[in-house]
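Weekly puzzle thread! Below is a chain. First person to post its structure in token form gets bragging rights.
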Amino acid sequence: MTIRVLLADDHGLLRDALKTMLQEEHDIEVIGAAATGREALELARELHPEVVALDIGMPELNGVEATARLVARDPTVKVIGISTYADKRFVTGMLRAGAMGYISKTSAATELIKAIRAVVKGQRYLCPMISEQVMDSIAQPMSSDIAKQPALSRREREVLQLVAEGFRTTEIAGRMHVAEATVEVHRRNIMRKLELHSVAELTKYAIREGLTTL
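Winning reply:
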């Protein structure tokens, strides 16, 4: 019986390379590929994968938010984060959202197959490079800047990402299926919480926090 896998990465060359690699395995079937976080959610709803291999820096809806929604909708789905980010915040963000694995893009060609086979057995999987860097970061004291960061709600983080990616209020409202007034309320709350006053400042913050990879 084959493992049904959905790939989600906005870099077409990497997505195609991983798909080709996985299709060579007798026990793995790639049933779909997505280029945005929202497309990953739509394809997962339609195709019912067992495993979703997901880049955390996805446009429109980042990997952490997409993972939380995937797992909330179907707790049986296993999510593996694939990322260039090894910072403890990104790894723990994905794991707290419900991911079962996290691997580096630089080692994806050798680690993804191991990760897929591990998570379908109910095991967590971090590639060696990520494990080492996370352990190193845990050993370091948390900076006061990080400790003092305000908490944004899931909806606020979603709005922040879309604002940073250049979407207008009407476009954001359409993607989130909410009223434009609701988007504006979220935007004001974000600016108040972060003490930021322009789209440029919001964009810099979103990039720094890994919400977008512009």
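Puzzle host: Confirmed. Bonus trivia for everyone else. The mean pLDDT is 86.
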